[in-house]
Amino acid sequence: MEKFYSCEQIAERYGVKLTTVWAWIRTQRLSAVKVGKQYRVTAEALLAFERNNTTVISDDANKD
After folding, report:
1. Are 56 and 42 a contacting pair, CB within 8 Å?
2. Residue 48: inside a domain, yes or no?
């Protein structure tokens, strides 16, 4: 069975407020499953979220 994370765990992992995690879910940036009154996020959905929100800095940006 796949591991699920609570919104609180995700907020702690990324150093953001709980309301930010809820906003990511509400705007469909982060996929979640609603269980009762709480959202749960799979490890796979977290990896997809990280891939979709990764910033790559080019070598040109580092030249000063």
Report:
1. no
2. yes
